[in-house]
Amino acid sequence: MWSNLFREFFADLGKQKLRSFLTILAIAWGTLSVVLLLAFGRGLGNSMMEGMLGAGNQVIIIYGGQTSVNYEGLSIGRSIRFTEEDVDLINKAVPGISHSSPQYGRWGAQLQYGDEITTTYMEGVNPDFEIMRTMYPAAGGRFINEHDVDEQRRVLFLGDEIATQLFKDEDPIGKQVKLDNMPFTVIGVMKPKMQTSMNNGPDANRAIIPYTTLRNIYGNRNVGSILIRPESPELQEEIKAGVTSLLASKYKFDPADEQALPMWDFIEQEEMNQKVSTGLEIFLFTVGFFTLMIAGVGVANIMFVVVKERTREIGVKLAVGARKIHIITQFMFESLFISFLGGGIGLAVSSAIVFGVLSMNLTTGAGEFLGKPQISEMAVIVTVGVLALIGLLAGVFPALKAAKVDPVESLRYE
Q1: Cβ proximity of 371 and 357 under 8 Å
Q2: Which are the contacts of 136, defined by CB distance < 8 A and separation ≥ 6?
Q3: For residue 196, what is the DSSP state?
Q4: How many Cα atoms within 13 Å fall on the side-chain side of residue 127?
Q5: What is the rounded distance in angstroms from the CA atom of residue 300 to the CA atom of residue 392?
Q6: 77, exposed or middle or buried, with CB in 10 Å at 0-12, 13-18, 19+?
């Protein structure tokens, strides 16, 4: 049975070479569109998420603001400023926090190595900052540790771009630089990372020292901000509410006054990015789906032509005892075969394009976002499902028409 179906199918293709070729090409092009749109859409979404995580991984940054609401007789416009003790207080009083760090900041810090001089934004933090801000050291170096903090060491962790600017091709690890004319030892350089969201410039141009060292040298009394990371994203709202209540009680401001305690919540941003990424994939799939459906019209068209040209043959088969289900099966098979043949070609070509783009290792310009396409299993499953749907829809009506052929009338058909 199957050999007869294949033999008759390829015989029909041979009679309609140009129309069959164009139909299969249309299906292949539609499949190519769907797969590539989904692959590059997924890659773009992943790059957006990677860029956002480059600025903070599930971090909540708490800033001191100004009161905008009268509270217990206290006036509007009071400045809220935090100290290092507030970080310890939050860790003790608010459960569910896995990492935290005070954050001092200083603009215009001057770095000098030999004849190379540059200025940058410097931060004083603790070791937890490495995980929260994804500032991981390249091979051979390290981030600041607890001993650096406890002993107020003059050690320096550099962003990758500013390290290249200062040291060119030299290995910076262990070298001494002058930070505002004070000697510091470079202990690590950040691994290059994508960063699409930033605060006071990209981390690639940043200098990091222990917060105790910065406070001791420059005499800062108040931290610029406090970073915390929940043990789980599900604890986000509970922790934010706990921190707000605690600090509002200490500094006497209305807990509902958002301007008194601004927060930058990366968990919310991550959820928003995920929704945008999902919406983008749905939109791109919809565009590709309709492209593929247009190709399905071509499959239906060629199947109707085949039914018309084989009316006599169908009548003979019915006259000698063929059942209608056999006729329907034959034309449904041919429709599905055309869909999957074109789909297989499209899937193969799109896979080759994706692997070709990945092999180019694009990391600059638009390639930083579009250079990492990904063909997911779901994309393949959905595409195959759409091809099956097209094959069924394009074949069912011609097949039903063929099954209704009157054997006597068909023998007179020219």
Answers
A1: yes
A2: 130, 143, 190, 191, 193
A3: S
A4: 11
A5: 10
A6: exposed
- Would you place residue 194 in the very low, low, confident or very high pLDDT band (cuts 50, 70, 90)? confident
Q: Residue 79 CA to chain centroid, in angstroms?
A: 38
Range 91-96 average pLDDT: 93
- Rounded to an integer, what distance in angstroms lies between the CA atom of residue 205 and that of residue 224? 19
CB 160 within 8 A of CB 54: no
The C-alpha atoms of residue 45 and residue 24 are separated, in whole angstroms, by 31
User: Mean of the pLDDT values across residues 270-287?
Assistant: 82
Do 11 and 310 touch, CB atoms closer than 8 A?
no
Q: Please give the radius of gyration of the chain, using alpha carbons only, rounded to the nearest integer.
A: 33
Q: Express each pLDDT in 342-387 by its tens digit.
A: 888 988 998 898 888 888 777 665 566 666 788 878 778 888 888 8
336's CB contacts (< 8 A; 6+ apart) are 388, 391, 392, 395
Q: Two tokens at 1?
A: 């049975």
What does the block give as tokens for 111? 């770095």
Mean pLDDT across the chain = 83
Q: Is the dihedral of CA 320, 321, 323, 326 positive or negative?
A: negative
Q: Which two tokens stand for residue 206?
A: 């940043």
Q: Concatenated DSSP letters for 221-266? A: -SBSEEEEEESSGGGHHHHHHHHHHHHHHHHT--TT-TTTS-EEEH
Instruction: Give per-residue pLDDT as tens, 301-319.
Output: 776 766 666 666 666 666 6
Q: How many helices (H) and strands (E) does the chain have?
A: 14, 9
For β-strands 116-125 and 97-113, DSSP reports them as antiparallel
Q: Are 334 and 306 in contact (CB under 8 A)?
A: yes
**Strand stretches in 278-361, DSSP E:** none
Long-range contacts of 71-77 (CB under 8 A, 24+ apart): 71/252, 71/253, 71/254, 71/257, 72/252, 74/252, 74/253
Q: Where are the alpha helices (DSSP H) in 54-114?
A: 84-93
Distance of CA 394 to the CA centre of its chain: 36
Copy the structure tokens of residue 352.
Answer: 């080759």
Q: What angle do CA 263, 276, 264 make, to 5 degrees?
A: 5
Q: Please, what is the Cα angle at 369 between 364 and 373, to 5 degrees?
A: 115
